[in-house]
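Notes to self after the Tuesday call (sharing in case useful).
The group wants a holo model before anyone commits to mutagenesis around the pocket. I volunteered. Ligand is adenosine-5'-diphosphate. Logging inputs and output together so the record is complete.
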Amino acid sequence: MNIIYLSSEVTPFAKTGGLADVAGSLPKDLQQAGVNMHIFMPNHKNIDKNKFNLKMILRKVRLKLGKKTKEVNLFQGYLPDSTVPVYFIDKELYFNRKGLYQENGQDYPDNAERFAFFCLAALECLKILNIKPDIVHCNDWQTSLSIIYLKTIFKNTPFFQNTKTLLTLHNLAYQGLFAKEKINDLFLTENLYSPTKLEFYDKINLLKGGIVYTDLINTVSKTHSQEIQTKKFGCGLDGVLTQRKDSLYGIRNGLDYLTWNPATDQNIAQKYDPDSLNLKAPNKQKLMQLNNFPYQEHTPVISIISRLVPEKGFELILEKLPEILNMDIKFIVLGQGLPKIESQLQKLAEQFPEKLRVHLKHDENLARYIYAGSDIFLIPSKFEPCGLSQMISLKYGTVPIAYPTGGLKDTIIDIDQNYEKGNGYFFQNYTSSDFIKTLQRALHCYHNDKIKWIQAQRNGMFQDLSWTASAKEYIKLYEKLMVNKNVATKSCVKAIS
Ligand code: ADP
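Result:
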């Protein structure tokens, strides 16, 4: 089975969030299970070609894109420690940029054209390389256009005659919304700007187009696959998703335990496992040292590693942070995002120099020290399709506090509800008062019931959140597509129109 996996970011080459982690790990497990994986991503400026030993395999190939002709280069490398080939669509005009999607909080104005080029060039390169795809597996809006091209421009192309599509929704909050005039930048040969196709409240919506045209859809946790069919979580696409509910599945993301495991992590101060939890202390010591805090064994360290955007719960955090910082705790934030949130955090860090450190950058090494050295991990997201950071914190014995939504609901169990399996704490109402009460509940346990605290830590560390089970579910979806080869294509667009 030949699967073409398209993603705008892939760890370790380029990353802004969880999508990159998934794209850098799931294909390895699938390949090991016998599926033939090929990843395509843009050749973003900061990808180090020497470090990853990337080779140029196509030079200045001229592609016919709609009415235009453009040149492209193709580099190739491998996902580290694997045989999974990664192809990098190289076009300076589009991808030689400081950011992946934006700079200084502003999206690049030509994002529609940039990712249209990526999607179409990837499909054209498949033809040149003669890699016949059984399934093109797309991720989020940036790659949705590949599905649309396959079902329109290429619908009668013999090379893609047997190609099916799967669209994975990692984050519905980002839909690829563009002004309707941009339709001309999408290299389409027919006008798809209509309410049953790409039109969405007077704009182009690329994710909607992907959902309408794809054969199957999945999102990244079971709970979220239900949630997105509701007004509260559907981000305006609940209607379209409900119409496609028979083709919509939920598969929880996994965690790459080769990368994220305190028992083998080379980058933390001291390795540890569930049976040597006392060895977490040197990591806390190191974290305090790195943050210029005195080490106090019994003072809880609370941390957040997150994009600094409202949906990650920063309204709640910012509202309650002064109150939290008056408690006997240390608080560490690592993240980048909206300038307003960054400056509010920075102001508080100046106000509470003995309690709060704010690191406004992307730094995976520091993230590892934080996961290993903290006691409590906050992830108060309003919605969370799956969430990787709580899975990492669970593996590192750092007890998460969250609101039970999406993948958080599927991976965290409140220890006060289930002592045997509990691994964290939930606040049931999305209010700042419930949030702070839950933090106090956790702190009370931390200080007064060490046995229960260790039980929560060990339950989290023993939980199997690897890709093994989830990769099997992806294979089942792929097989479903292969069986239904002739049925799905026609029915999906019909279901919407
Ligand atoms: P999302 O994909 O919505 O950003 P996830 O929880 O699914 O959220 O994934 C976030 C990933 O990015 C985690 O691996 C987390 O550790 C990492 N991360 C987020 N911000 C930073 C940062 N500033 N520095 C290092 N890693 C970060």
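Two things stood out.
Residues 17-18, 21, 171, 305-307, 334-336, 362-364, 367, 387-389, 392 surround adenosine-5'-diphosphate (CB under 6 Å).
Residues 91 and 105 are 23 Å apart (CA to CA).
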